[in-house]
């Protein structure tokens, strides 16, 4: 992927990055926001961020897709928080009866070799750590919500996820 060229201001490189990644990133964002228009706005924000911050990409820390997916996830969560109570259109009872037929972000990524490697490495983690990472990075759940679900302090959850990510990085050979 041509993030270095994007950092040098090459518009065609940004177009290439967009063409290669927009469907995956849109899937991640849509899974978090559940609103197509909001997801489209956030996707645009993601690529503006990529244009402005491509020079900060460090291939030693993450693959290009992982870096982009992290930006997309964070922007979507920021938008979700900004929307706040306005998102409460349906009641919780309605939510239980609505089936989401669309594959989740992790399922969409499984077609890639990177996703298969990630799945294999996730299986090496204990169930709690794996579930927390999947919820936070693929389900769009905030660390605070993951900590509440698990009944642990936020700092403990952040540490659990961080240690799990370090093990994943080692497993993936990054």
Automatic annotation (TrEMBL):
Transmembrane segment boundaries: none
Residue ranges constituting the RNA polymerase sigma factor 70 region 4 type domain according to the UniProt record: 116-168
Gene3D superfamilies, A to Z: 1.10.1740.10, Winged helix-like DNA-binding domain superfamily/Winged helix DNA-binding domain
InterPro entries assigned: RNA_pol_sigma-70-like, RNA_pol_sigma-70_dom, RNA_pol_sigma70_ECF_CS, RNA_pol_sigma70_r2, RNA_pol_sigma70_r4_t2, RNA_pol_sigma_r2, RNA_pol_sigma_r3/r4-like, WH-like_DNA-bd_sf
Biological process annotations from GO: DNA-templated transcription initiation
Keywords: DNA-binding, Sigma factor, Transcription, Transcription regulation
Residues annotated as signal peptide: none
Domain RNA polymerase sigma-70 region: 23-82
Gene Ontology terms, MF aspect: DNA binding; sigma factor activity
UniProt record similarity statement: Belongs to the sigma-70 factor family. ECF subfamily.
Protein name: RNA polymerase sigma factor
Organism annotation: Aureimonas pseudogalii
Lineage: Bacteria, Pseudomonadati, Pseudomonadota, Alphaproteobacteria, Hyphomicrobiales
């Amino acid at each position: 992927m041509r993030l270095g060229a994007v950092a040098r201001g090459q518009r065609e490189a940004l177009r290439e990055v967009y063409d290669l990644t927009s469907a995956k990133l849109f899937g991640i964002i849509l899974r978090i926001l559940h609103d197509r228009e909001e997801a489209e706005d956030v996707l645009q924000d993601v690529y503006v961020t990529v244009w402005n911050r491509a020079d900060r990409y460090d291939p030693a820390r993450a693959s290009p897709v992982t870096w982009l997916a992290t930006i997309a996830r964070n922007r979507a969560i920021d938008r979700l928080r900004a929307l706040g109570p306005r998102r409460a259109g349906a009641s919780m009872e309605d939510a239980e009866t609505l089936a989401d037929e669309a594959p989740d972000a992790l399922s969409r990524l499984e077609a890639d070799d990177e996703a298969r490697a990630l799945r294999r490495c996730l299986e090496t983690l204990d169930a709690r750590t794996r579930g927390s990472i999947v919820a936070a990075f693929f389900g769009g759940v905030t660390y605070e919500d993951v900590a509440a679900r698990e009944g642990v302090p936020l700092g403990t959850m952040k540490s659990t996820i961080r240690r799990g990510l370090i093990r994943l990085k080692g497993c993936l050979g990054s």
